Amino acid sequence: MENLHKLTIKEAKDLLEKGEITSVELTEAIFERIKQVESKVGAYITITREKAMEMAKASDERRKAGKTLSEIDGIPIAVKDLFLTKGIKTTAGSNILNDFIPAYESTVTGKLWKAGAVLIGKTNLDQFAMGSSTETSAYNTSKEFNSTTRNPWDLDRIPGGSSGGSAAAVAADLCIAAVGTDTGGSIRQPASHCSITGLKPTYGRVSRYGTIAMASSLDQAGPMTKTVEDTAILLKIISGYDKFDSTSFDKEIPDYAGSLKSEIKGLKVGIPAEFFGEGLDPEVERVVRSSISELEKLGAKIIPVSLPSAHYALAVYYILMPAEVSSNLARYDGIRFGFSTQKIENLKSTPKSLEEVYKLSRAEGFGPEAKRRIMLGSYVLSAGYYDAYYKKAQKVRTLIKKEFEEIFKTVDVLAAPVSPVPAFKFGEKASDPLSMYLSDILTVPVNPAGLPAMSIPAGFVEKNGRSLPVGLQLIGSHWSEQTILNVGFAFQKATDWHKKKPII
Amino acid sequence: MAKLSKEEIEHIAKLSRLDLSSEEKERYSRELSAVLAYVDQLSEVDTETVEPTANVTGLQNIWRDDSVESSGITHDDIELNAPEFKDGFFVVPGVFE
Q1: How far is B85 from chain A (nearest CA, A)?
Q2: Which CATH superfamily is domain A4-269+412-499 in?
Q3: Could you report the per-residue pLDDT of A89-126, keeping only the tens digit for each?
Q4: Between chains, do B16 and A318 touch, taking CB under 8 Å as contact?
Q5: Where are the domains of chain A?
Q6: Helix (H, G, I), strand (E, B) or coil at A255
Q7: Does the distance separating the beta carbons of B73 and A103 come in below 8 Å?
Q8: What is the pLDDT of residues A274-308, one digit of tens each?
Q9: What's CA A424's distance to the chain center, in Å?
């Protein structure tokens, strides 16, 4: 059978069940695809071929033995290099962890392997998930361009970030599905730029245990896939309470895929005016508005709404996030693990004090973006500033959360653009951090509020003769993943944007 | 908001345990000041009677039994990633004179 790399989870699962393909064949097809295009795209930091073939063989044996198998048994999955994988190098896209071998497995990846998934490799990302383009990664994974991950739709452009490697891997068929993390848009924005489906679940739906922390009150892992149906399948597998993450929520996990409904007649879709403001590319707006018309054709009621506090979400985010970053990244001390100037081969002069080991190891190990955020966080948390910044931001966070809660009394979901612009060119924003931060303005508001939100392929815009993907963002109230999945499922039944493939 | 002074940047760098070059100090002074000027817009919002939110799903005080369990992580696992490790301990420069 040809083109196995193009399969969705659902299609691959059906063929595996019918015995028409084996996991080994499917996994080999992915590696064949990697051989063809990975040197250009550069989605992976680490490719785990040997391990993958072992896992695929084991899956085929389970199937042969007639065992009860999960929906993803034998399915090749790519994992953002932010999830700890026991015995497999995990870098977080940073130099400070460039030879770090985790001693334990993250809950998310543990659930994937328990369900029989096959690990293809660890994907590139912005350093410690800090960025919107994957350019802050310490790893030039695209050998042909000697750069970080390229966008499969236009190799001159960034794939988005921070889960850029996972998004590019799914879009370029270098895996069947992937997992990423989203702190301020890091699943949705690259999903939009690469024309795939990506869901950030409700905060607490998925355990954060073993996921290298950026901003603990905002971080949430989620699926990045070729279809809404696949996202639903994967979400069920990775969700659930975990005693190792006290912020994970003990709540029943629905059968998201089994409960998918494409009937959305009468469903109320709110269109928040603030998400269509200044800075939104007119072509992107046209695509998003036409996808909203599509939802209307399917019977949804379109209701204009207003979220005035959303305007402040980015400012809230750029206080809370760096504050939590400065705390979380304090653990990289050059003593217990990671890059150290104390290590013989890195030794320039004997460190005079413990303080020097800290300062020099961190100075050499962290990239500019990590340092910038640590500095910003230390400042807003420093004596005399805590109330003015951190506490103030947590109060405005309350207002944002309440405003969303009020809106969800009148509508079922919100529909909006994901990113104000399509994928930009390499280096375009890298020199101006504030302009890079502003590109997250439409994805950030849901994170301080803890809401689930998904990006689905909505169409394309033409820039310099290239077609660039545009995503539609669907936002729901807490624990309403099923509703936004249903809207996305209905949309994908009626359109074929999600079936378009890049020519690499 | 005024640009952060060299002394302020050096103070933050010390708190952050980061050794910065003079070029970095200059750059971060400029960039941090721009971000701080942007987030200053929050001062427009009246939050006099608003409670801060730390956890968005309403969880609070999650307790567990204070019991010892094995993590399954061995000394060898720790040694594998430790920059300098000897006789089961991390090696650090002397702390006391």
Answers
A1: 9
A2: Amidase signature (AS) domain (3.90.1300.10)
A3: 999 999 999 999 999 999 999 999 999 999 999 999 99
A4: no
A5: 4-269+412-499
A6: coil
A7: yes
A8: 999 888 999 999 999 999 999 999 999 999 999 99
A9: 18
